Task: inverse folding
């Protein structure tokens, strides 16, 4: 080592306490990404439970729970509803902390491409947006269209969180398909069909009996039976495409991880179908509806993961430039 190098090293400032702390927190990046994904799915269930129990206006305003108080004020009129609604807000705060952790850890990784670093900000920005949307929903007495948007944004955040988790464990080289062109095209169709599956599920919810509040909440002016049948029909299309994909993975050379991912999606889809039909014929008991909402979040995460197994990014000794890379 030259004298100049030793002098430069000695002159370099030692990392501050904050930098050392952030570097240490970075070693827990993957658990934080998993926690974020789980949290994004959990908030769908807790938010659904608020609606299913008629607790949507348990806290009558936002951001305060009651005028002059951020916490519940015990009185007979709201009963347990305010505790349920306030509990959901607490879960949102916890998820916001996790998402902030993820944003800091991912954004500080200067060695990753910009697409990954920007993706790391998505959960935090989404949770903040969801808090605002949730506040508007309360202030306008739970309009079903806004409640539906609220749920679909959460599903989008589940998708982005799974995408981020997968991309974090990959290299930053361009992706290459590991399946034949027909399977690849069919898999993209499966992802597209998932969108109307979720949207129609939200419409069924908006037209059903669980509006979040028995007095103030309106319902969508659709025949619940008609939209339920439309939703079921699109789910059957999704299932046919999925079975077709599984057949192709046995007909053409396909990595085992692709088959495994599609089998997970098949299992979740079948369970969702059973729960959906049972809840339909038993008058929509809130327990089954909550399980169905968790299943919808699980289906979104599983489908995202399965589609991402159909391409790979090979590690290279020299990191490519951002301009040479494509997003997931």
Result:
């Amino acid at each position: 080592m030259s004298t100049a190098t030793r002098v430069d090293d000695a002159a370099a400032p030692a990392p501050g306490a904050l930098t050392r702390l952030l570097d240490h927190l970075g070693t827990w990046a993957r658990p934080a990404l998993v926690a974020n994904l789980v949290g994004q799915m959990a908030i769908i269930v807790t938010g659904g439970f608020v609606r299913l129990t008629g607790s949507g206006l348990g806290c009558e305003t936002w951001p305060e729970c009651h005028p002059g108080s951020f916490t519940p004020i015990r009185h007979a009129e709201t009963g347990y509803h305010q505790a349920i609604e306030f509990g959901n807000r607490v879960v949102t705060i916890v998820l916001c902390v996790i998402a902030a952790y993820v944003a800091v850890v991912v954004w500080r990784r200067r060695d990753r491409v910009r697409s990954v670093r920007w993706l790391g900000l998505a959960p935090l920005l989404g949770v903040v947006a969801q808090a605002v949307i949730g506040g508007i929903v309360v202030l306008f007495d739970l309009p079903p269209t806004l409640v539906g948007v609220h749920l679909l944004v959460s599903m989008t955040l589940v998708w982005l969180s799974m995408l981020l988790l997968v991309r974090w464990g990959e290299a930053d080289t361009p992706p290459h398909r590991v399946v034949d062109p027909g399977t690849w095209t069919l898999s993209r169709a499966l992802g597209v069909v998932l969108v109307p599956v979720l949207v129609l599920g939200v419409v069924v919810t908006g037209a059903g009996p669980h509006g979040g509040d028995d007095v103030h909440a309106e319902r969508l002016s659709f025949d619940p039976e008609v939209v339920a049948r439309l939703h079921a029909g699109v789910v059957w299309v999704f299932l046919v495409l999925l079975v077709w994909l599984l057949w192709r993975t046995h007909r053409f050379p396909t990595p085992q991880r692709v088959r495994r991912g599609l089998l997970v999606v098949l299992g979740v889809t079948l369970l969702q179908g059973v729960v959906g039909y049972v809840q339909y014929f038993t008058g929509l008991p809130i327990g089954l509806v909550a399980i169905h909402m968790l299943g919808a979040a699980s289906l979104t995460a599983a489908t995202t993961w399965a589609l991402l197994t159909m391409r790979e990014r090979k590690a290279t000794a020299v990191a490519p430039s951002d301009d040479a890379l494509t997003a997931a």
